[in-house]
Design a protein that fits this description.
Elements: E1 4-9, H1 13-24, E2 29-35, H2 38-48, E3 52-56, H3 64-74, E4 79-84, H4 87-99, E5 103-107, H5 114-129, E6 160-165, H6 169-178, E7 186-191, H7 197-208, E8 212-215, E9 226-229, E10 235-241, E11 244-250, H8 262-273, E12 277-281, H9 290-298, E13 302-306, H10 316-322, E14 328-330, H11 335-344
Length: 349
């Protein structure tokens, strides 16, 4: 099998050196070139034809966002955004994901070691290589809240919706939430994303959704009309006390190399909510969430997986389908309607 060819674009010579060292020691990965700025990168993309690029988002001469916009319009390539772990860096990274980037990698401040970044970088490159990059104009934005169909009657408020996603998930989650009415049951979400970025992601969703969206804190109540996003580098579990659902945020070993892990959330939802839950597994590489979705289904939950055609990477949903964990496989645009249909059906009595 041919190696995955990577181009590193970063104005820092140290970062270019460290990334080259990380990638070069991995079987199946090859650094075909590096570039200190977008002008050099443009020429090397045409010359070297990389499969994946890593792109620093804050650079002189031409910033990463401007370059990414031009790249996705003229020569779309799977792109991993490398961003500082700052509020500004996090917001720029979210802008980049909206423009077509497929992954985000946090760049720690100060000196950082190969060991700190190696596993994350390699995993994201392998995931990016499996994606189908899109031009920004190819993205069909989620419907505005005003265009949502009349709300079906919800027969009980004692329900919960659990959603998991990885590569390509930020845009998929946004589309699902924009398609749901403000009286939806409480929603808990795991999106594979570094610390700080989950904070910015929740804040951005809160600005555009009719639901309240926040990054979860330990003990937060899961309420109708509220969405809790698992913080980066922490697991989130759904717990129940009497009739009250709440989020438990905790440390713990990674599951499927992920923290937060979708399986951790889904398994806890199966135990705490049983048949009162809906599980939704969206785009992403690997198998995180597949076993947990099966556990939810076996405890009576209704389960949905995103289809291959609309997934950026059809990995996690595919694994769930293979395990028999899914009631219905749907294109992304139909998932909000299916959630509302199920909540209004006899299942929700």
């Amino acid at each position: 099998m041919a190696s995955i060819k990577v181009l590193i674009v970063d104005d820092s010579a140290i970062v270019r050196q460290i990334f080259t060292e990380i990638i070069s020691r991995e079987p199946g990965l090859e650094v075909v070139g590096t570039a200190p700025d977008p002008d050099v990168a443009r020429d090397k993309i045409l010359q070297l034809k990389p499969d994946v690029i890593t792109l620093d988002i804050e650079m002189p001469r031409m910033d990463g966002l401007t370059f990414l916009k031009k790249l996705m319009h003229h020569h779309p390539l799977p792109t991993i955004i490398v961003s500082s772990l700052t509020p500004r860096g996090s917001q720029l990274a979210l802008d980049a994901l909206e423009l077509g980037a497929v992954e985000v990698l946090g760049k720690p401040g100060g000196a950082f070691s190969v060991e700190d970044l190696g596993g994350q970088l390699v995993e994201k490159i392998r995931a990016a290589a499996l994606t189908r990059p899109r031009k920004p104009s190819d993205h069909h934005p989620a419907p505005k809240p005003s265009s949502v169909a009349p709300n079906p009657p919800l027969k009980t408020t004692n329900k919960v919706i659990a959603i998991g996603a990885s590569t390509g998930g930020t845009e998929a989650i946004k589309e699902v939430l924009l398609g749901l009415p403000p009286n939806s049951p409480g929603i808990v979400i795991v999106q594979h994303m570094p610390p700080k970025f989950t904070t910015a992601f929740a804040q951005r969703l809160n600005q555009i959704c009719r639901l309240e969206v926040k990054e979860a804190q330990d003990g937060d109540s899961v309420l109708a009309g509220r969405v809790l996003i698992a913080p980066g580098n922490c697991h989130m579990l759904l717990r129940r006390s009497g009739s009250r659902y709440f989020a438990q945020v905790k440390n713990g070993p990674p599951v499927h190399h992920q923290r937060p892990s979708v399986d951790v959330l889904f398994n806890s939802t199966a135990l705490s909510a049983g048949g009162n839950a809906i599980g939704v597994l969206l785009t992403g590489m690997g198998a995180d969430g597949a076993d947990g979705l099966l556990a939810m289904k076996e405890r009576g939950a209704y389960t949905i997986a995103q289809d291959e055609a609309t997934s950026v990477v059809y990995g996690m949903p595919k694994e769930a389908v293979k395990r028999g964990a899914v009631h219905k496989v749907l294109p992304l645009s139909r998932i909000p309607g299916e959630i509302q249909r199920v909540l209004a059906s006899s299942w929700a009595t």
